[in-house]
Amino acid sequence: MKIAMIGHKRIPSREGGIEIVVxxxxxxxxxxxHSVTAYNRMGRHVSDKNADLEAHKLKNYKGIRIVHVPxxxxxxxxxxxxxxxxxxxxxxxxxDVIHFHAEGPCLMLPIPHMLxxxxxxxxxxxxxxxxxxxxxxxxxxxxxxxxxxxYADEIIVLSLxxxxxxxxxxxxxxxxIPNGVTSTEFRExxxxxxxxxxxxxxxxxxxxxxxxxxxxxxxxxxFSKVKTDMKLVIAGGSSHTDDYWNEVKKLTKEDPRxxxxxxxxxxxxxxxxxxxxxxxxxxxxxxxxxxxLEAMSFGRKCLVSDIPENKEAxxxxxxYFQKSNxxxxxxxxxxxINNPSTFKSDYEIMNYCYKRFNWNEVTSASVKLxxxxxxxxxxxxxx
Length: 383
Description:
By secondary structure, this protein is of the alpha/beta class. Helices cover about 45% and strands about 15% of the residues. The strands form 2 sheets. It has an 8-stranded mixed β-sheet, with helices on both faces. Strands 11-10-9-12-13-14 form a 6-stranded parallel β-sheet, with helices on both faces.
């Protein structure tokens, strides 16, 4: 099959979960013999101001054809303009399937639908709920969600909670396909020691985007009340959230135990996961948190908010605190630090993760949907 991917920022990139999903899915589709074109956005890396912008010259990555689409930097217009131009180019690409990722880009899904091109939409989360968006952007995201519900041949959701939401809100059936994890690469502490003075099992880690819905302020406030020699590492960059980023930096200055690394990838990324005592995800809102799956793939202890998506991902392989409750988070941090036996073993956590979240299974399920969408359209045309 010939497949187009629209909705991510750039691949290869770790700017967010969508970029990871598009890359992992696309590379496996290529390995299966399919043709994939990824429509990358042009513009600066939103999480890493020092990122190498030479990626804009990339035309092929691991067999994936890369097309660069001009994109404005205005956060409210970014996804709309990109999605329009990417979709217009894609409808002339003779694709069997156009796969849209995230609610905003789905605003353009009716265009290929009206032209009889098969469409798949992956809803990575209810983006309109994210507090970083203003009123106009929120309305656009909600409209994109409605377009997906009405026009997509198939909709993929990453959590049972979102699946129920589409059923209740639009009476639309969706397909539940969770994200996967890649093989773990354990690394001894080297860069993290030289650069940040970190030692194995002597720090707690948050790794992800620095945005309000991730609940990082809760974590900083709770950690400030915990008596421990452990350090707290906040790893990641902002994403159209400079005010929030500045608030985080202000709070970290008040506690010398807290370390901000900025955006991380490569060996530094692997070292941070390999050597942390525990991973914490204090989110108010998630789709299917890849950073949490990655932490479990390293067998890490995990302390997470009790939102449905986190509980769905971890089951009984994590410790939970009440969402947004700083005092409960403080209490659970102390329990986790002082009582390691609260958690299952590293092996049990890792084994659970790899059995539950598998990219090869994700790809096979996606291919089946592509074929089903194509067959459905052929039946409609015959009628």
